[in-house]
Amino acid sequence: MQLRYSFRLYPNGPHRAALARAFGCARVVFNDGLRAREDARAAGLPFVTTAELSKRLTEAKKTPERAWLGGVSAVVLQQSLRDLDGAYRNFFNGLKGKRPKMGPPQLKSKRDTRQAVRFTANARWSITPGGGLRLPKIGDVRVKWSRSLPSTPSAVTVIKDSAGRYFCSFVVETEPSEVLPETTPEVGIDLGLGHFAVLSDGRKIDAPRFLRRAERKLKDAQRSLSRKEKGGKNREKAWHKVARAHARVADARREFHHQLSTTIIRENQAVAVENLAVKGLAPTHLAKSVHDAGWSAFLAMLEYKAARYGRTFVRIGRFEPTSQVCSACGVKDGPKPLHIRQWTCGACGVVLDRDINAAVNVAKAAGLAVTACRAQVSPVPVPAQRVEAGTRRDGQPTVVGTPAL
């Protein structure tokens, strides 16, 4: 499988100026190609192919208006055209139903908070013996290597984020030797806001709420930004201060997701989760808390780490009634308001924790071998019904678990 490795770059002044030129040239080439295709569409002409755009790019370098495009690596400009092709491909595939719908390609702005260029093997970039990253027409840039690459990458992407930090990103092929030894536990996970994750074995992971904890500093930084005059240097400094504050929140959240997902994958042979409708929760009053939790990013980490380390990852349907079914006897007794965190099964008399019970039902719906007794808080004696004394209760088939007998 392919994995992406990112490392921090520390360019000096000349390096930053060269990278700024590369970002600008790649943006101009992208916009020129987009305009050419949109003009052809408006005029009723055939779709302009990538080969034609590449030919026009070569001719543009010979003109006084675009002669400065020759100051950067030609590979960067060609990869910008490939990015334009990818944007059109995603748009058309969305119309065909092959992927989620997305809008058509848009013009890029020099004020975009994220800039990126890509160097393939044709650009002859390399990692120097001293550990630097040698980029054509840019130079040797210092890299903070936090770990070693498992194989030789074929391309590198240089990224400047909204906080003004630089990163280099490599896509490499991993070896199957990274498969972890098999283990016995299997776990279901119920994600929430009160607790970030509740596991079917009874563990509850508190929600860190990184954005909520940083709101005071973010508020002060945003207020300072709003008081600066537009177009001034002080406003630019204040804007970068706000961006760095948001970057710290995102970094802390990402680190928490990585640590928790790695722990779960290493400890369990199979992991089951619910396919959440995050977009459906975004317009509600829970929007800030939902986005602060970052469920989608966490589930994506679980999925690729399970594939990497030889674990089983299962997503169940979002319409499974995991909070309505007793994990002990399998009886479904209907939906419950969110403020009810414990409930008593009217059939078997078991007092159930809402979140742990849901996690157990998630695992059962995925076909994992988990025990339902861990969702039990305390058993309560239930008197036998007068018409059923001495007999077994009539069964009711449910979606999760087995029919009660």
Please, could you describe this protein's structure?
38% of the residues lie in helices and 19% in strands. It has helices at residues 13-42, 50-60, 74-95, 210-213, 215-226, 233-267, 278-281, 287-293, 295-309, 354-365, and strands at 2-10, 115-120, 126-127, 133-135, 139-144, 155-160, 166-173, 186-191, 195-199, 204-206, 270-274, 312-316, 342-344, 350-353, 376-379. Helix 1 packs across helix 3, helix 5 (215-226) runs antiparallel to helix 6 and helix 6 (233-267) packs across helix 9 (295-309).
How would you summarize this macromolecular structure in one to three sentences?
This protein is of the alpha+beta class and 405 residues long.
- Which structural category do the helix and sheet elements fall into? alpha+beta
Assembly type: single chain
Low-pLDDT ranges: 372-405
Q: Which overall shape is indicated by the principal axes computed on the Cα atoms?
A: elongated
How far apart are the termini? 46 Å
User: Count of DSSP E strands?
Assistant: 15
The helicity comes to: 25-40%
β-strand percent reads: 15-25%
Radius of gyration, rounded? Answer: 27 Å
Number of helices: 10
**Sequence of secondary-structure elements:** EHHHEEEEEEEEEHHHEHHHEEEHE
Largest sheet: 7 strands, antiparallel
In the sheet with the most strands, the strands line up as 2-6-7-1-5-4-3
Mean pLDDT: 86
